Amino acid sequence: MAKAASAPCPICNRALADGSPAPFCSQRCADVDLGRWVTGAYVISAGASSEDDPESSTPNPLDIDTHE
Ligand SMILES: [Zn+2]
User: Fold this and answer.
1) What pTM value is reported for the model?
2) Separation between Cα atoms, residue 48 and residue 50, nearest integer Å
3) 3-state class percentages of the chain: helix first, strand second, coil last, to nearest 5
4) Which of 46, 9, 36 is nearest to 24 (CA)?
5) Rounded-to-10 torsion of CA 60, 62, 63, 64
6) 32 CA → ligand 1 middle, Å
7) SS3 14
8) Residue 42: predicted pLDDT
9) For position 48, what pLDDT does the model report?
10) pLDDT, tens digit (0-9, with 9 covering 90-100), for 1-13
11) Distance between Cα 6 and ligand 1 center (Å)
């Protein structure tokens, strides 16, 4: 197995230099990725309602059985 080639920076696609904050080529790119991640996390948490109770929307099989 060959020596693992370092993947390019996922932000700007540049090769990583020694001392780079892997997996990013620079702290700036790391900050860009962190900003994207945080923004995405906020969007996800805002879209998913924590008040939605999955149990209340699930029909009770016993209720269906006694419908006859
Ligand atoms: Zn970069």
Assistant:
1) 0.49
2) 6
3) 45, 0, 55
4) 9
5) 90
6) 9
7) coil
8) 72
9) 56
10) 655 667 899 999 9
11) 13
Cα 37 to middle of ligand 1, angstroms? 15
**What does the pLDDT read at residue 59?**
64
Task: Calculate how far, in angstroms, residue 22's C-alpha sits from the geometric centre of ligand 1.
Answer: 10
pLDDT of 65 over the 60 cut: yes
Q: Dump pLDDT digits (tens) for 16-59.
A: 988 888 899 999 999 999 898 888 877 766 655 556 666 666 66
**Residues for the chain: how many in total?**
68
Residue 20 CB coordination number (10 Å): 17
Q: How close is the Cα of 11 to the center of ligand 1, in Å? A: 5
Instruction: Measure the CA–CA gap between 26 and 9, rounded to whole angstroms.
Output: 8
Give the Å distance between the CA of 28 and the centre of ligand 1.
7
